Structure prediction request, 224 residues.
Amino acid sequence: MKLRVLIVDDDPAVREPFAAAVEASGDMLVIGQATTLAEGRHLLHNARPDVMLVDLGLPDGDGSELIKEAQRALPDCEAMVVTVFGDEAHVLAAIEAGATGYLLKDATPAEIVDQLRVLKAGGSPINAVIARQMLRRSAAWAQAQRSNQELLDGSVEDAGLLSPREREVLQLCAKGYSYEEIAPLLNVSRHTVTSFVKRIYRKLQVHSRTEAVYEARRMGLLRD
Prediction:
């Protein structure tokens, strides 16, 4: 079965050579050519293509809208963008709409045909410039995630690690008060003070009062 291709592009200097190359391929068939978003929608629903070549800058709208519609109405239809727009906003909008390929219009008709085969075989053809751009964006995102994690990791070294009452208990321990002395000062039982201390030890990963005071001071949790 020949691959049924719909071409949506308002520029005949681009659209017609692409159509000729598809027809000459031997394993593909152009089932329609559209110059507007409205024409593309009509052919999408009536010709039911296997794959669309879609320009984003159409006279009556954005080609990404047609890709979204294809995802809803004909989910087996693959969409490959062929456009002059190589900026991040257009790339992301097309990918989010459902495009599985993204090429720039400097690709030759023969290259388009080859990439259509790659697309239908399960690949995701993408222009090298766009690929580098997306990799840089991914790297920037990963760095931002690492920075956020470092901030989160660092946040355990602030006062939020211990509750206000736990800090009060630790502050009194640092001043040398015994559990029996701390209890009436905080209007709690000795047993409650012991529970606070155990939680403090667990959070600071220590095993004694001396270690707890040392770690808390090192982490900036205690006032001198």
User: Anything to note?
Assistant: The longest helix spans residues 128-155. Residues 3-131 form a domain with the Rossmann fold fold (CATH 3.40.50.2300).
